[in-house]
Amino acid sequence: MNESAPTEPFRPADEVTHHMGYLLKRAQAALRGAMDKVLREHGLTVPQYATLELLALHPGMSNADLARATFVTRQSGNVVLRGLQDAGLLTRPATADHGRARPARLTEEGHARLAAVQDSVYAIEQRMTEAIPPQRVAALLTDLDRIAAALED
């Protein structure tokens, strides 16, 4: 059987609660709520946790790079970094070597806090993954990436 591309223009579902955007937002809100709950037990917010994860993988990232990667503004990113620094979870030089960037690095306590919370966060991702038939997970991840790329003009 030869399947061809649809010839009709796309029309969203008749009911807004069945629109792709609504369903994506519902899934995002559920994820955020689940993460907020487990992170609160460790004294962290979602942006703080994301910052710790990124710095563990890429030590020395700047505020601007971290803000972009954690989906917050530079100003909010700076507030996140200051909070983590005040909590002793990361360090940044007092002044920049060149330009304005002050690279951040996790402290031992930052690595320990991240390790303490990772299993709980990864369990949330596992719950999401287990809700989908295993043979469809890779395609879903590819499709989500395509959706983001299509909107990032």
Give start-end ranges of low-pLDDT stretches. none
Number of β-strand runs: 2
Radius of gyration: 19 Å
Distance between the termini: 36 Å
Structural class: mainly alpha
Helicity range: 55-70%
- Structurally, the number of domains stands at 1
Would you identify the CATH architecture? Orthogonal Bundle
Instruction: Identify the strand order in the major beta sheet.
Output: 1-2
Residue-averaged pLDDT, rounded? Answer: 91
* CATH T-level fold name: Arc Repressor Mutant, subunit A
How many helical stretches? 6
The name of the CATH superfamily reads Winged helix-like DNA-binding domain superfamily/Winged helix DNA-binding domain
Instruction: Please state the overall shape, judged from the principal axes of the Cα atoms.
Output: globular
Strand content: under 5%
Taking the sheet with the most strands, its summary is: 2 strands, antiparallel
CATH class: Mainly Alpha
InterPro entries: HTH_MarR-typ, MarR/SlyA-like, WH-like_DNA-bd_sf, WH_DNA-bd_sf
Pfam families: MarR_2 (PF12802)
Domain HTH marR-type: 17-149
Protein name: MarR family transcriptional regulator
How would you portray this structure in words?
The protein has a single domain, classed as Winged helix-like DNA-binding domain superfamily/Winged helix DNA-binding domain (Arc Repressor Mutant, subunit A, Orthogonal Bundle). It has 6 helices and 2 strands; from the N terminus they run H-H-H-H-E-E-H-H. The two termini are 36 Å apart. Helix 1 packs across helix 5. It has a two-stranded antiparallel sheet with strand order 1-2. With 153 residues, it is mainly alpha-helical. 61% of the residues lie in helices and 3% in strands.
